[in-house]
Design brief:
Blueprint (H helix, E strand, L loop, with lengths): L4 H16 L3 E2 H8 L3 H13 L3 E3 L4 E4 L1 H23 L4 H14 L2 H15 L1
Antiparallel strand pairs: 1-3, 2-3
Helix pairs in contact: 1-2, 1-3, 1-4, 2-3, 4-5, 4-6
Length: about 120
């Protein structure tokens, strides 16, 4: 199943929040992203149906193995692209916002090239 950009955003958010607190709830995701409860509820339902997350009886969200792989991929893209833009002199807030847009559209080939370039630059 092909996941959409919005689904990637939710998975990445659950991943980021779970790094700070292992008990992530829909309300936490909504606050983090600034989305309404109905929007989050719908997305959680779709992600659950797609097999990307599980929801326990207390309402805690947990990434499945597939969900975790996608979340880590998007998060890695975000952090690396943000770093690159900052190194180029872009304001950190602007870099983070732009990385958020780029991370979903960039091809694997282009991202791997950026990653290799950053590795040589940071060495």
């Amino acid at each position: 199943m092909q996941i959409q950009e919005s689904g990637e955003m939710y998975l990445e958010s659950i991943y980021v929040l779970s790094q700070k607190n292992p008990q992530v709830r829909s309300v936490d995701v909504g606050e983090y992203l600034g989305y309404s409860k109905p929007s989050v509820s719908r997305a959680v339902g779709l992600l659950k149906t797609g097999g990307y997350i599980t929801v326990d009886k207390e309402g805690h969200l947990k990434l499945t193995e597939e969900g975790l792989q996608i979340a880590k991929k998007i998060y890695d893209r975000h952090t690396l692209i943000s770093r690159l833009l900052e190194r180029l002199g872009v304001d950190p807030e602007v870099a983070a916002a732009d990385a958020c847009k780029i991370e979903h559209a960039i091809s694997d080939q282009s991202f791997e090239a950026i990653k290799a370039y950053m590795k040589t630059m940071e060495a």
